[in-house]
Amino acid sequence: MKSVSLLCWTVVTVSFVSPVRGESDLDRIKRTITAMHNAVEAPVIKRTDEYVSDLAALEKKIAPEGNLDFVLQIKNERESWEKRSATPAIDPKDNSVSLDLRKLRYFFDQDLAKLEKANSTRKIRLWNQVIDDFNELEARLTRAGRIDEALVVRKTREDFVAGQLSVSPPQSDSRELAEKKESFSRWLSKVRFIVPSGHAFRIKAGSVYLRPPGGEENWIADADIDKSEQIVSWEIGGGLQRAITVSSTRRKATLSADREEDLEIEEIE
Description:
- By secondary structure, the protein is α+β, with helices and mostly antiparallel strands.
- The protein has 7 helices and 9 strands.
- It has helices at residues 25-40, 42-62, 68-82, 99-143, 147-161, 172-180, 184-188, and strands at 191-194, 200-204, 207-211, 218-222, 224-226, 231-237, 240-246, 253-256, 260-267.
- Strands 4-3-2-1-9-8-7-6-5 form a 9-stranded antiparallel β-sheet.
- Strand 8 and strand 9 (260-267) form a beta hairpin.
- Helix 2 packs antiparallel against helix 3 (68-82) and helix 2 runs antiparallel to helix 4 (99-143).
- The termini are far apart.
């Protein structure tokens, strides 16, 4: 029986991978998912494999005692976790279960809980960023008329959401937290920014749209969205840039142009 130190499972922060020459945007997203898997899934898989190994050793150790019920308990537990099928928690005080099995499972559950707590916020952030990347790529391909490629991106995103790309979705409680802390790109699609002059900016599908007072909304530029800093920037020609910077609480925003102006944030959905 052993409880392995969590120090060797320290989860590294994933920096979303940079493009490689000749690599498609979809392949870059897939490499990001692999990096995400290594950061948040691999430590759990490693600990589970260790638990299965401990169970196999315990099964051999306890067999000579002749208690078939205890041997079957350990065997069933081992076979379930080998298939990545979680079993119900074991009551540490349940004397009908092998004491050695109870001890192994106790330390295993403790370690998984620590890993889940360490990974929870990071996983939500990375998960939302990957979804944003899928959505932005799909919109860009659609605007370019590359419909077949956009459909492939959508199918790949659906596989990712279903946990079929080696990364499981956040737990139910984590999904609730994720909904409360929406990704920046999804939040942008639900608001418009109004300048004191009455002009209104809207960011959607990776582009910036401007509506003059009393006029129609028109596309003006492709947007560069910095999700971590919550900044939307774009070029207007002649090397000039404009940027909207959103506060961490998403209650305030500033337009940097010829001068800085405070913006009103208006919900539109």
